[in-house]
Design a protein that fits this description.
Elements (H helix, E strand, L loop, with lengths): L7 E3 L2 E3 L5 E6 L4 E7 L3 H18 L4 H17 L1 H12 L3 H22 L9 E5 L2 E9 L2 E5 L5 H14 L3 E5 L6 H13 L5 E3 L4 H9 L4 E7 L2 H11 L6 E5 L4 E5 L5 H11 L11 E7 L3 H14 L18 H16 L3 E4 L13 E4 L5 H4 L6 E7 L2 H9 L6 E5 L3 H10 L4 E4 L18 E2 L4 H7 L1 E8 L1
Parallel strand pairs: 7-8, 7-10, 8-9, 10-11, 12-13, 12-17, 13-16, 15-16, 17-18
Antiparallel strand pairs: 1-2, 3-4, 5-6, 6-20, 11-19, 14-15
Amino acid sequence: MSAFETRLFIKGEFVAGEGPSETANEPALDSPLAEVASASAGQVDLAVRAAHGAYKDWSQRTPRERSAALFAIAAGIEARADTLAEVESRNAGKPLRFVKGGELANVADVFRYFGTAARNMPAPAAGNYRSATRTSLVRRDPIGVIAQIAPWNYPLLMAAWKIAPAIAAGNAVVIKPSELTPLSLLALSEIFAEVLPAGVVNVVCGNGPDVGQALISHDMVRMISLTGDVRTGRAVLQAAAGPMIKRTHLELGGKAPVIVCEDADLDKLVETLREASFYNAGQDCTAACRIFAHRNVVQALTDKLQAMIGSLVYGRPERDDVEFGPLISARQLERVDGFVSRARAGGCDVIQGSADESGGYFFSPTLVAAPIDAEIVQKEVFGPVLSITPFDDVQTALDWANASEYGLGSSVWSRQTEQAMAIANALEYGVTWINTHGVMASEMPHGGMKNSGYGSDLSMQSLIDYTQIRHLMFG
């Protein structure tokens, strides 16, 4: 592929950005892919006004009409899978075979699921609750213009998680991709141009302090949806408390604990962690990144993990054998290396896979044996790094897990169903897997607690999040 779409997508048309350019890199080569001009303040305003105008019509379309549009988007994704996969792989550093074989199918499935959900919006039944002569009914109506900020780790999938439920509910969207990875969403916008009325989805590019802030602060925006870090989440909440109060929907990262009981199936666990910890180079908010293992099995588990890490294949995304690729940027590489270097300097036992690639932002898969108070156990690393910490009793592991500022993903490993359920019930996390980790389903909600944010992606609950409930009464 020699050319990429680099223009903004506003009111159904691609237009050149009028702001400063940002470089979209190829992380595997540490080289530029394209220059993408940012949206000016005027273009952000134009995009929001385009969404506001489109909302007036789109919100009145029947669920059947909106459903048909989402199904058409899903079909368009499948028809252009090769092109979208190449753009995503090169700009985000993901193994091409995984983008083609899994992620794009999930992107299409999200649009198809919400195409179905749009026709099944739940609401309480009508009734005469006040008196026999006054009949009440409940409506769920769209909110209006939704400002959305998507992350760089899953550019297409996270955009789908945001756009699909929002437009299925009848809203219009202005979405800003990360300035690091705008190319695949711009490529997807070609399908939006063919399927959706002009202005229903708009894409503006640029950084957070300028373009993002202008977007979320706009008076016509009625809701802000963010997937990002806690610092950005706080900025969103400040913008939401401006002259026009806005709804918010936040997913702000995680530090997923993996509680391994004495009776756990260690072979199944290690095979699961091969993907759950290292897929996408560990750049995943629900990555299985810190293991709390019963002391009686910690050495056996460490040995198995060391063997697994030694066999992991990482390198250039186009290779057929690669299991994960580079980190997203030089800055992220420096950050991850800093965590591991400080852990080593602090006396932690660091086990790393052998270097397999050079020339890009590659970091070896890493296992760190560390105490509970170590920085690498407490802070989100967002790289191919897994820590392991022994515990003597399950309550200790639970206390450690629940003491975290994060509350997004977690997992429990035990052959005893009663014990596994008791631990899972006590964990303060939006999702807890039992004897697996990281598996998503479009029908099931995905969201966090505590500093991981609130609001659900996926499922009927996400569709509800993008609506406002209303009471109508007939007298």
